[in-house]
């Protein structure tokens, strides 16, 4: 086998992206399930609605983790995904034009 001369750039390190996504998914699943359990205990008396609030929280956590993970895999690199093009400040919106008048 050939030896590695260096580490991969972050945009090509798929294992690191998977590790980060799994960590994010587990954390959001647990935290949002706990939030749903707390809300269920606070607002509902029936066990069915309490379990439903836990399931809703878990679904929200998994959905938000999926969205963030899909963005990280679709991004060309981690450094260029965080950098946005500078906005042109010479243009003014209709709201700011009306405020100036």
The N- to C-terminal Cα distance equals 72 Å
Give the integer mean of the pLDDT values.
79
For the largest beta-sheet, the strand count, sense and barrel status come to:
none
Structural class: mainly alpha
What is the CA-based Rg, rounded?
22 Å
What proportion strand? under 5%
Helix content: 55-70%
**Order of helices and strands, N to C?**
HHHH
Number of helices: 4
Residue runs with pLDDT of under 50 for 5 or more positions: 78-85
What is the subunit arrangement here? single chain
| Count of beta strands | 0
Instruction: Give the overall shape.
Output: elongated
Biased composition (Low complexity): 72-86
Region (Disordered): 72-101
Family: Belongs to the MICOS complex subunit Mic10 family.
Keywords: Membrane, Mitochondrion, Mitochondrion inner membrane, Transmembrane, Transmembrane helix
Overview of this protein structure:
The structure is a single chain. The longest helix has 30 residues, at 14-43. This protein has 101 residues and is mainly α. It has 4 helices and no strands. It has a domain at 15-76.
Condensed summary:
With 101 residues, the protein is mostly helical. Helices cover 69% and strands 0% of the residues. Residues 78-85 have low confidence and may be disordered.
List the helices and strands and how they pair.
Elements: H1 14-43, H2 47-74, H3 78-82, H4 94-100
Helix pairs in contact: 1-2
Which features does this protein show?
101 residues; mainly alpha; elongated; mitochondrion inner membrane
